[in-house]
Design a protein that fits this description.
Length: 156
């Protein structure tokens, strides 16, 4: 059995370079079509944390940062924008433990929680469902290069 003892702490602006590295891994795992550079990710994360728009929590296991959560807290809800566990640390209960720490130490119990998960990420969907999240809606997207030419559109 793997030791699932995690230590957590709220990320600060000094953690932005580490968060950007983890965010880049998250983006790669999610299959984002355009991967931002570390410098771009650092700038975005710095702005979000400095403005207070988002908060982040880092999770350490056996002296190494292995996971993070990035979320926006609003009056009645919390949106978990990113939740990432390093690939070599998955499937050992660390994600569940990190989520338990978020519930107990960071998030008020009276707020609705939401997380967006790409529909093609079946493992992530299974994880979120297994910890109690329910399917709520499906968001459809269309990339600019997928848009039909206006002249080719047909009338309904």
């Amino acid at each position: 059995m793997v030791d699932t003892t995690l230590h957590s702490r709220r990320a600060t602006l000094a953690d932005v370079p580490l968060l950007a590295e983890l965010n880049q891994q998250f983006n790669h795992d999610e299959g984002h079509g355009t991967i931002a550079s570390l410098k771009q990710l650092q700038a975005r994360l710095h702005d979000w944390l400095a403005s207070g728009e988002y908060a982040a929590v880092l999770f350490d296991h056996q002296g190494q940062t292995v996971a993070y959560a990035l979320y926006r807290e609003q009056a009645a809800s919390i949106n978990l924008r990113q939740f990432f566990v390093a690939g070599d640390r998955r499937r050992h209960g660390l994600g569940r433990r990190a989520l338990a720490l978020l519930f107990s130490d960071y998030w008020p119990a009276d707020k609705r929680l939401s997380v967006d998960v790409p529909t093609r990420n079946e493992r992530a969907l299974a994880f979120w469902r297994s910890v109690g999240f329910l399917d709520y809606c499906t968001t459809l997207i269309m990339a600019p290069k997928q848009r039909p030419n206006p002249e080719q559109r047909t009338s309904p």
